[in-house]
Design goal:
alpha/beta; UDP N-Acetylglucosamine Acyltransferase, domain 1; 8 helices; binds uridine-diphosphate-N-acetylglucosamine; binds calcium ion
């Protein structure tokens, strides 16, 4: 293996994340729909390391399970009860060298950096390989460096060491160049550099940052500045999380605006990374576009709409609604106050109006369900109209059953379809029908529903 190859990557995920004040480990918090851990794993895996290791300890089983279920090639390493980033790497290197000394380069990354991307990591690796350094730290310059380890250089600009905020003197605190907690080491240099780490510092932890100074005894040590400061920002508490999420979301919104999408208010429009939006689509305030949502050209979404893995074809309108894993056809009209649960297919020019709920419903072209209805486990043909307050009774308490309604059917108001039931094409149903048995095409169906009038009746308390 050439010495420039990335033989291993070590993701540090053993910390508790005390400053999040959470019952779950920090790295399992989500950022734009994906956990910090999974985001960093994706970026690191894109560099094709020989081994991808994740170090765990706090709620270790939970973090290990999250890592393994996301990427089956990951190797989980348990940190022992000695604290600190340096100890995490000691534990990792011990295991990674168990079957013989590691050669080549080793990438180390903290996992509390949700925007760490493969391009930045690739640029760091390339810089490291070209520099001939034994160790390269990824740095950035921040207006407010509070909380970060500072990069201390000599008068010629050579990197001397990293000083943690809590151990820094006033002149060190004045430095704005910070450690991002991402490094590339030559494996042999790393093994030696972490041997002598101690915990004689303000936090009583084994600092990985100290390994940079010891690495200098073995080889040259350098720094590479991340081209985009946002990509390397760490999240230690929920205030930083919210600020970073907002900054990232604004970039995503700006990206789509530059692609020809109208976004009225980027401050209240939240768009996750995997969303795709067509030209001249309009996204109104208070909209959350999540998962693999795809929005066609000239579609109008919002205000106050949540789309989760939805496909909205061109010209469709979705207002004040929640739509999950549903395909909405061209020029369809959804909302306001419509709840489309997973598995619906709505045809071109179809409608699901106010207070309509659907689940696994297939609605043909031009079919309308305008008011106050539940349509679940059902197939509706084309150009059928469903009267207000109609319900498909799909559940008998044990099993779900299917309702089939043909094309050009006129369903009266307040109908109840007791599934399993099939209604043919061209049928008309009377208001308040309870349809328990199949109805042939081109017929009319109504159910007896006798009206009784009791004249002069009064409630007991009035008598
Ligand atoms: C660390 C760096 C600091 C840098 C900052 C960037 C050290 C000593 N300090 O500080 O120089 O500016 O990141 O964000 O490295 N972790 C373990 N095991 C542990 C402790 C932590 O695996 O025992 C993991 C955490 O899960 C986290 C990462 O290491 O992913 C960094 O830990 P954190 O406590 O956030 O370090 P910082 O104080 O931010
Ligand atoms: Ca951190």
């Amino acid at each position: 293996m050439a010495s420039s190859a990335l033989s291993a990557a070590i993701i540090l995920a053993a910390g508790e994340g005390t400053r999040m004040k959470s019952s779950k480990p920090k790295v399992l918090h989500t950022f734009a729909g994906k956990t910090f851990l999974n985001r960093v794993m994706d970026s690191v895996a894109a560099l094709n390391p020989g081994t991808l290791a994740v170090v765990v300890r706090f709620q270790g089983e939970r973090v290990a399970e999250a890592a393994r279920s996301y990427n089956e090639h990951v190797i989980v390493i348990e940190q022992d009860d000695k604290p600190g980033t340096g100890r995490a790497v000691q534990c990792a290197m011990e295991q990674l060298s168990a079957n013989g000394e590691l050669t080549g380069s080793v990438l180390i990354a903290a996992s509390d950096m949700p925007l760490l991307d493969a391009e930045t990591l690739g640029a760091l690796l390339e810089f490291h390989n070209n520099s001939g350094n034994g160790a390269t730290v990824l740095t950035t310059v921040l207006d407010d460096p509070t909380g970060y380890g500072r990069i201390i250089r000599d008068s010629e600009g050579n990197v001397l060491r990293i000083v943690e905020q809590k151990d820094a003197n006033s002149s060190e605190l004045a430095v704005h160049e910070v450690n991002t907690s991402v490094y590339v080491f030559d494996a042999a240099v790393l093994s030696k550099a972490i041997k002598g780490l101690n915990s004689n510092n303000a936090q009583g932890e084994f600092y990985l940052t100290d390994a940079l100074e010891t690495a200098k005894r073995e080889s040259a040590v350098g720094a590479f500045a991340a081209p985009d400061p946002l990509s390397v920002e760490g999240v230690n508490d929920r205030v930083q999380l919210a600020a970073l999420a907002r900054a990232h979301n604004l970039r995503v919104c700006e990206h789509w605006m530059r692609e020809g999408v109208d976004i009225l208010d980027p401050q209240t429009t939240w768009i996750e990374d995997d969303v795709i939006i067509g030209r001249d689509a309009v996204i109104l305030p208070g909209s959350f576009l999540q998962g693999h949502t795809v929005i066609g050209e000239n579609a109008v979404v919002g205000p106050y709409t949540t789309l989760i893995g939805a496909t909205i074809d061109a010209e469709a309108h979705v207002e004040r609604s929640r739509v999950q894993e549903t395909h909405i056809g061209r020029a369809a009209n959804i909302g306001p106050w419509t709840y489309l649960r997973p598995g619906n297919e709505l045809g071109e020019g179809s409608k699901a109006g106010a207070f309509v709920e659907m689940k696994k419903a297939h609605i043909g072209n031009g079919t309308k369900v305008p008011h106050l209805s539940y349509v679940g486990d059902a197939d509706l043909g084309e150009h059928t109209n469903i009267g207000g307050g109609t319900i498909t009774a799909n559940y008998d308490g044990v099993h779900k059953h299917h309702t089939t309604i043909g094309s050009n059917v006129h369903v009266g108001a307040g109908n109840l379809f007791v599934a399993p039931v099939t209604v043919g094409d061209g049928v008309t149903t009377g208001a308040g029908s309870v349809v328990r048995h199949d109805v042939p095409s081109d017929s009319m169906v109504y159910s007896e529903n006798t009206q009784h009038v009791v004249e002069g009746w009064k409630p007991e308390w009035e008598r």
